[in-house]
């Protein structure tokens, strides 16, 4: 790319390139050179916008976590419609079928990145902790509507669902699990607590 040519939305262009590299090559393949090559820009472009590569990675992870807000809102809004198990299975498949699983691997792979993230995200792995909150909020909404048992421990069920889903989707080299497998997992965790009429 010629010097002096402005790149529109540089951060998003670099983040989108990081998505592709991370999904294709995994955490070990995610380097500043790989990101800028994928984005089609000079390596210096990344370093003009970020203090160093770990600063870029921390901003990338937090940006992808904040993008989960729309997904969380959509799941919360689905309370009372469809089925509890169907809504959860679809949400977990969408979450873990995205770059989320690869970001979890990235955060656990890079010590310096975990250190940077602790400055703004003091507990847990950002994608997973946000996902737990998303699922807990949805379960609480369904409990409030009477479609989940009144005694359901949503703060215990949510991390159980996230952990079980992560195990199903963790092998990024293999094909994603069949929808039926996700549905069965969700049923095994919450099926006994669902109070909606059978369909």
Automatic annotation (TrEMBL):
Ranges that cross the membrane: 84-109
Gene3D superfamilies on file: Tetracycline Repressor, domain 2
Keywords associated with the record: DNA-binding, Membrane, Transcription, Transcription regulation, Transmembrane, Transmembrane helix
InterPro entries, per database record: Homeodomain-like_sf, HTH-type_TetR-like_transc_reg, HTH_TetR
DNA-binding region(s), chain positions: 31-50
Source species, domain of life: Bacteria
Protein name, as recorded: TetR family transcriptional regulator
Organism: Sphaerisporangium rufum
Lineage summary: Bacteria, Bacillati, Actinomycetota, Actinomycetes, Streptosporangiales
């Amino acid at each position: 790319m010629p010097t002096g040519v402005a790149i529109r939305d540089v951060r998003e262009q670099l983040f989108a390139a990081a998505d592709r590299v991370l999904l294709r090559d995994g955490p070990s393949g995610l380097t500043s050179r790989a990101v800028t090559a994928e984005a089609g820009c000079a390596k210096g472009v990344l370093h003009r916008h970020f203090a160093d590569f770990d600063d870029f990675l921390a901003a990338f992870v937090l940006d992808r976590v904040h993008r989960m807000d729309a997904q969380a809102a959509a799941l919360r809004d689905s309370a009372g419609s469809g089925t509890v198990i169907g809504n959860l299975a679809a949400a977990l498949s969408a979450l873990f079928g995205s770059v989320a699983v690869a970001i979890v691997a990235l955060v656990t792979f890079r010590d310096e990145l975990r250190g940077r993230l602790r400055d703004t995200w003091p507990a847990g792995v950002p994608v997973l902790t946000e996902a737990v909150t998303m699922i807990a909020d949805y379960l609480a909404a369904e409990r409030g509507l009477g479609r989940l048992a009144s005694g359901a421990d949503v703060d215990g069920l949510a991390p159980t669902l996230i952990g079980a889903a992560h195990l199903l989707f963790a092998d990024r080299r293999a094909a994603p699990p069949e929808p039926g497998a996700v549905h069965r997992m969700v049923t095994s965790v919450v099926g006994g607590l669902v109070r909606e009429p059978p369909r």
